[in-house]
């Protein structure tokens, strides 16, 4: 598929980064505040720093915790206790614990609160006086998260963090990790352009972020006044998020609240050097600390698991669409190089798309083929000790085909069962409710994932390519901080790295 047919226009927000020097030298004796420290990408970042630059001065890790004891427990179990850190443990051996005690400071807090909810005033003053760089990795990534929760973490959280960071006397750069899918369902070439406050994707006027918070607060008050159950409150908040997102052109709560988070950062940045990284769909590690590490079943991996276990017999999505995937270690390397490139700058926010659809695209059909090949060669053995035989499956390549399939296989049988249940004086009530819940769940799943499996956009990465060029020309440690998607061999990566990693994690 040719990608050069997408027009380049004068609206491209492009920036040539400063001349780069040694990234390892840049990191040396620096203090970094990292939020969302127990998250997938944050762990990859923390591991990378400890492994390649132990002479970092300090890593301040903000963890959602009530106190230092809870924070330590979370760090030990959810971060350093993970397999991801096995290479670091092998490298340092008995010296690792002293290194962590010296270099890592745990910060109990909450990004949704002012001053990050840090109760220890001495620690707060230390951070404000020491931190050189701030990295925001705190996020909720559920597509249909409760609207109040998503607003707190994805929208107002970054604003709280930036306001706190502007008090840091040595701050050199603020890096925020967003998502490329803040673009919604835009087709064609998606540019690396920042949002302005009030921007919408469908031209609807009136988006006001503070009004959105007020709407949430009023709805919660209303629910509480009617003594609504927690289940009902949660369901209503999820529906409200989807409703508000679609009103302004976004497909889900996640993309909507992340976009508003970017808007707030742009409005509040003042003289702060602000870098926004927009990764696409993040997958398992490509090379470091070892290939194939992942945690949790993420996005497309749920389809891999369902297919390998024989529970998914159809493929939903346009087989000719480009699926933009990027390994986690490449995202982290791009983050680090971007921080070095933009330290002490006060230009407009710089946006970096970190993905593969422009430089090394992979078609959705190829993912289907990889799944078929992998599970044919290495079938999953079910609880009865028998291998699950996979087949090519039914291809639902259009939204119409998906809705038709759902209607024939689920909606019509549900209507028939409803009629029979009514005629039999509710004799099949339990069966009807079970099927109804299943159908509702499947319809919600189709609604949430359709914008991605039928996505028609390609992410321009001109800024990111210029960053790669600057890194190459400066002769920095490119073998350590690699993030060139052209180096990925998709056949090798999927067959022997990514699906193998999913298989190891989910098919235990």
Automatic annotation (TrEMBL):
Residues 34-335 form the Thioester reductase (TE) domain. GO terms for biological process: long-chain fatty-acyl-CoA metabolic process; suberin biosynthetic process. InterPro entries: FAR, FAR_C, FAR_NAD-bd, NAD(P)-bd_dom_sf. Keywords: Lipid biosynthesis, Lipid metabolism, NADP, Oxidoreductase. It comes from the Eukaryota. It holds the Pfam family NAD_binding_4. Catalyzes the reduction of fatty acyl-CoA to fatty alcohols. Its EC number is 1.2.1.84. This is Fatty acyl-CoA reductase. GO terms for molecular function: alcohol-forming long-chain fatty acyl-CoA reductase activity; alcohol-forming very long-chain fatty acyl-CoA reductase activity. Residues 410-508 form the Fatty acyl-CoA reductase C-terminal domain. Belongs to the fatty acyl-CoA reductase family. It catalyses: a long-chain fatty acyl-CoA + 2 NADPH + 2 H(+) = a long-chain primary fatty alcohol + 2 NADP(+) + CoA.
């Amino acid at each position: 598929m040719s990608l050069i047919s997408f027009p380049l226009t004068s609206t491209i927000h492009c920036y040539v980064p400063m001349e780069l020097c040694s990234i390892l030298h840049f990191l040396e004796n620096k203090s970094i505040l990292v939020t969302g420290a127990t998250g997938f990408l944050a762990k990859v970042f923390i591991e990378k720093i400890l492994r390649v630059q132990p002479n970092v001065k300090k890593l301040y890790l903000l963890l959602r915790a009530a106190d230092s004891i809870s924070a330590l427990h979370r760090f030990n179990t959810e971060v350093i206790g993970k397999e991801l850190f096995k290479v670091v443990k092998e490298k340092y051996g008995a010296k690792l614990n002293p290194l962590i005690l010296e270099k890592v400071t745990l910060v109990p807090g909450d990004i949704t609160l002012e001053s990050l909810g840090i109760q220890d005033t001495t620690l707060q003053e230390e951070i404000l006086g020491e931190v050189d760089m701030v990295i925001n990795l705190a996020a909720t990534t559920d597509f249909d998260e409760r609207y109040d929760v998503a607003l707190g973490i994805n929208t107002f959280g970054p604003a709280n963090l930036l306001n706190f960071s502007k008090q840091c006397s040595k701050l050199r750069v603020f890096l925020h990790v967003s998502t490329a899918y803040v673009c919604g369902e835009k087709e064609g070439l998606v540019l690396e352009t920042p949002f302005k406050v009030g921007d919408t994707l469908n031209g609807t006027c009136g988006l006001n972020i503070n009004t959105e918070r007020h709407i949430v607060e009023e709805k919660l008050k209303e629910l509480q006044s009617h003594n609504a159950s927690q289940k009902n409150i949660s369901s209503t908040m999820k529906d409200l998020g989807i409703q508000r997102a679609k009103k302004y052109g976004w497909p889900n709560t996640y993309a909507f609240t992340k976009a508003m988070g970017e808007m707030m950062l742009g409005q509040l940045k003042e003289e702060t050097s602000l870098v926004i990284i927009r990764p696409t769909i993040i997958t398992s590690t490509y090379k470091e600390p070892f290939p194939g590490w992942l945690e949790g079943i993420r996005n497309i991996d749920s389809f891999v698991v369902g297919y390998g276990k024989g529970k998914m017999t159809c493929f939903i999505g346009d087989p000719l669409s480009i699926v933009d995937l990027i390994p986690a270690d490449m995202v982290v390397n791009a983050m680090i190089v971007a921080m070095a490139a933009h330290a002490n700058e006060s230009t407009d926010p710089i946006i970096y798309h970190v993905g593969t659809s422009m430089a090394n695209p992979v078609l959705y059909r190829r993912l289907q083929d990889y799944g078929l090949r992998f599970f044919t060669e290495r079938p999953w053995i079910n609880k009865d000790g028998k291998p699950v035989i996979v087949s090519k499956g039914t291809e639902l390549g259009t939204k119409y085909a998906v809705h038709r399939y759902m209607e024939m296989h689920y909606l019509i049988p549900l209507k028939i069962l409803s009629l029979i249940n009514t005629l039999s004086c509710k004799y099949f009530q339990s069966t009807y409710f079970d099927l109804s819940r299943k159908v509702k769940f499947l319809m919600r799943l189709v609604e949430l994932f359709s914008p991605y499996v039928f996505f028609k956009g390609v992410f321009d990465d001109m800024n990111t390519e210029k960053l790669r060029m600057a890194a190459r020309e400066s002769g920095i440690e490119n073998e350590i901080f690699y993030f060139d998607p052209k180096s990925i061999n998709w056949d090798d990566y999927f067959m022997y790295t990514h699906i193998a990693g999913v298989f190891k994690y989910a098919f235990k």
